[in-house]
Amino acid sequence: LDQLRSVLADDRFFTYLAATNSEYRAITTLAKQFPSVTPATAYQALQLSTQVQQERSRLATSGALRTPEAIQTAYAGWNARLEALLGAEAAATYRKGPYGRAFNPPNVTRSTPPRG
Q1: Could you read off the pLDDT of 42-57 as tens digits, one per residue?
Q2: Contacts of 55 (CB under 8 A, 6+ apart)
Q3: b/e per residue, 86-114, with b = 16+ CB within 10 A?
Q4: Which of 26, 30, 59, 70 could lock onto 37 through a cystine, CB 3.0 to 4.6 A?
């Protein structure tokens, strides 16, 4: 996408992206309620969502997300980045939708008591 963006002017690129990418289109709908969510911001949120999904897979595969604490720490960092980008209210609304759920940590219960 970055190569395509370098060729097209921003308005044409964002129009193309809205027509071809449902996740981007979902993020841009936040602009109706939150004017600070511009097409460029929506694109950055799309890129962040992709990064989070890749990081989640990598961390799960490596075993780094074995404890509830590790999971909470990872998701807290991702959500801080999302909120810095969209604003707290827009991020909360986005997390309620099908694509934003990638930022919601799974419900995890501890199978063994913590070491003390």
Answers
A1: 999 999 999 999 998 8
A2: 74, 78
A3: bbeebbebbbeeebbebbebeeeeeeeee
A4: 30
Within the chain, strands assigned E span none
Alpha-carbon distance 76 to 100, whole Å?
A: 14
Could you report the per-residue pLDDT of 26-38, keeping only the tens digit for each? 999 999 999 999 9
Record the tokens describing residue 5, joined without a space. Answer: 């963006």
How far apart are the C-alpha atoms of 26 and 14, rounded to whole Å? 13
Phi, psi of 35 (to 5 degrees): -60, -20
